[in-house]
């Protein structure tokens, strides 16, 4: 969504009491954090792989350094919204679709912003993806192996599972992430490698060194 589109989005009377700051890059926003007490961060995504990664890195840093700031993402489509939800290393307070009718988008955003005083207690993601649908440690491990170039048979050996089981986990990961091809899955895996899962149950693996 362009700067003009964002201005149009906030033109509704429902946002009369808000002051909107627009930034074209993450560095400018981060430097402004030293002197502006933001209530919410609204990150408008393009459908580019690099941009998704930048978004998740930015949100992770904000959650760690400014945890009281509400974190909202405007996704291009349902597939991108699903990827962001599943791969975000920190909690999001809302993921909204830019493709929604303007009035609906304004209503959803207004509702989210009204909750900013209790962001740390907000457990419901407005994209309505349940915790049970998040990637399992095994599914994450498979994606990380794939991003390193391992084949399904090689992954099966390293995780001590049969090939059919690995393929089933891979299929489940594709469903959860909303992707339909190995290319889409690798895009997700590429993002995932930047955010190791802090779960002791997750299978550990070592990437071999070839001399």
Automatic annotation (TrEMBL):
InterPro entries noted in UniProt: Sig_transdc_resp-reg_C-effctor, Tscrpt_reg_LuxR_C, WH-like_DNA-bd_sf
Keyword Transmembrane recorded: no
UniProt-listed Pfam families: GerE
GO molecular function: DNA binding
SUPFAM superfamilies: C-terminal effector domain of the bipartite response regulators (SSF46894)
Record domain HTH luxR-type: where: 128-193
UniProt entry keywords in alphabetical sequence: DNA-binding
Keyword Cytoplasm tagged: no
Entry protein name: DNA-binding transcriptional activator BglJ
